[in-house]
Design brief:
mainly beta, 6-stranded mixed beta sheet, 5 helices
């Protein structure tokens, strides 16, 4: 019966994607999501596994591939997966967050139909509901260039994915209960590399060859620094953009960010530490893996090499040094620099300030004083079916108000094909990391102090990096800071703008950006999927005829 049901879904999906995705190749995945016992820090925990794996299976794809991912929810609670950095062109229906999708009920399945349209690079997927991200359920996404598109470096001898981040020994349900009770999370218990604690993972290399490492910070609370003992790293890609190929001895990777580096095994034949440590924390956590030369004459020995700890200026200068390779091709053959973002006039300025108000006696987090609360119906469905009373456009202001925090299902209206200047502002003493679904943006500036219109004089309008997740520094040294973006609003849909600090996101530091086109055309946005799950006040309605 299960095989018949799966075949029926595949046939239905094929009919659907053939209508919207053309003749680009298909890749099919069937995933079963379960609980399972894991021991990443030596303590038995309940983890979220995909096909029995933690981390979950890797997605390997090529630009424009159609990904058909059938997810069976064998948990005892609703579940969703989201795809960090995958733009879902014209297709926010597949974004996998509560504002766009009904959760997959326990014991049921849902088939995601996505296309990695006009994208290359390194990304990851993760569970987006109920603090599931603290239990695992994440995995890597690799999007390779099409064979005829030139890549600005020779093919590496190997391609490794590293999913690193902080970890708690408490189960995700206990962490969620702490937040629901109005308290802050404790400090993380450790760091993981690909689901394992110190010395739990080995990467094999041959002397003299060059390898690609794709590193993502999949944690929920802390920035990390990544380094490889005795080796330099050549940065080549950040979240789908080829970079100027600068050399680094270590890299700061903030929550939700992804980087690609090339490493040449050009040192004496032995084993070396791969090190991940926390940044901007009073207590420094460290974990290691091993870089193993195939002709190694000795194992790793001595202490792992140290890295930066609380230095803000060091990290700020490194962030400014990461720039776009203007002559390299991206997903298309034309050079990345052919899009002259600095010559486009902005049509709107949006200033977004994070804060940490106490509301109704409980700790919350907010954007422009609004602390987001989920509605009983996904916002995308409410918008499509024109269900009143679920959200109001304009329920979050374009600028900081300076007022006390309040609860609201916050949605900001935006026009399709507008070109926005977005300024994130931080007056707290903690570093922030922000992600915007469905888009890339150009990081034109970041600095300490208060942003003013005069800050535009310092913008990089020529070759700044484009990406989907950006940091915003904050400490007692930098009591105020800002990061400015230029963002083409070129993707119709309902898009999540969120803190990548998962406690802050869970407690309200997020909102939705509704990018709207009045054309109501498949040219601008795909129609509602035939297999869309309906819930809340959208229950019982019809999607499209099968």
């Amino acid at each position: 019966m299960g095989d018949y049901r799966g075949l029926s879904w595949v046939l239905a999906v094929l009919v659907s994607v053939t209508c919207i995705c053309g003749e680009d190749p298909y890749r099919f995945f069937t995933w079963n999501v379960t609980y399972g016992d894991i021991y990443p820090l030596g303590v038995k925990q309940q983890g979220i596994l995909i096909n029995g794996q933690f981390p979950g299976p890797a997605i390997e794809s090529v630009t424009n591939d159609n990904l058909i991912i059938s997810v069976y929810n064998s948990l005892d609670e609703p579940f969703l997966l989201s795809w960090n950095g995958v733009q879902q062109r014209r297709n926010s229906w597949q974004d996998g967050v509560w504002g766009t999708n009904c959760p997959i009920p326990p014991g049921q399945n849902f088939t995601y139909i996505l296309q990695v349209k006009d994208q290359i690079g390194s990304f990851f997927y993760f569970p987006s509901l109920a603090f599931h991200k603290a239990a695992g359920g994440y995995g890597g996404i690799k999007i390779s260039s099409r064979p005829l598109i030139p890549v600005p470096f020779p093919p590496p001898a190997g391609d490794y994915t590293i999913l690193a981040g902080d970890w708690y020994k408490k189960n995700h349900t206990d962490l969620k209960a702490i937040l629901d009770g109005g308290s802050d999370l404790p400090f993380p218990d450790g760091l993981l590399i690909n689901g394992r604690g110190s010395n739990g993972y080995t990467f094999n290399v041959d002397q003299g060859k060059t390898y690609r490492f794709r590193i993502s910070n999949v944690g929920i609370a802390t920035s990390i620094n990544f380094r490889i003992q005795g080796h330099k790293m050549l940065l080549v890609e950040v979240e789908g953009t080829h970079t100027l190929q600068n050399t680094y001895s270590s890299l700061d990777i903030h929550l939700g960010q992804s980087y690609s580096v090339l490493l040449t095994a050009d040192q004496p034949a032995q084993d070396y530490y791969i090190v991940v440590s926390t940044r901007f924390t009073s207590q420094v956590l460290t974990t290691t893996s091993t870089l193993h030369y195939s002709n190694s004459a000795g194992r790793v020995s001595g202490p792992p090499p140290g890295g930066p700890t609380i230095q803000i200026d060091w990290s700020l200068n490194q962030a400014r040094s990461i720039r776009q390779n203007l002559t390299a091709s991206g997903p298309r053959p034309n050079p990345q620099g052919s899009y002259h973002y600095g010559l486009v006039n902005t049509t709107r300025t949006i200033r977004l300030a994070n804060s940490a108000p106490v509301i109704n006696g409980k700790q919350r987090y907010a954007v422009n004083s609004v602390s987001f609360i989920p509605a009983d119906t996904p916002l995308k469905l409410a918008d499509y079916f024109k269900i009143n009373g679920i959200f109001d456009l304009g329920s979050i202001p374009d600028n900081p108000t300076g007022s006390g925090g309040y609860l609201k299902t916050s949605v900001m209206a935006a026009d399709f094909r507008a070109f926005a200047e977005v300024v994130f502002e931080n007056s707290e003493d903690t570093l922030q990391s922000w992600h915007i679904d469905g888009h890339i943006f150009f990081v034109v500036g970041m600095d300490g102090g208060q942003w003013t219109p005069a800050s535009r004089l310092s913008y990089n309008l020529r070759d700044t990096i484009s990406r989907s997740t950006v940091q915003l520094f904050g400490s007692r040294v930098y009591p105020k800071s800002w990061t400015a973006l230029y963002m083409p609003l070129d993707n119709v849909g309902m898009w999540n703008v969120r803190s990548e600090n998962w406690a802050r996101q869970y407690l309200g530091q997020q909102f939705y950006l509704r990018v709207y086109s009045p054309a109501n055309s498949w040219r601008d946005e795909y129609p509602i999927p035939k297999n869309a799950l309906l819930c809340g006040r959208a229950s019982g309605r019809k999607t499209r005829p099968l």
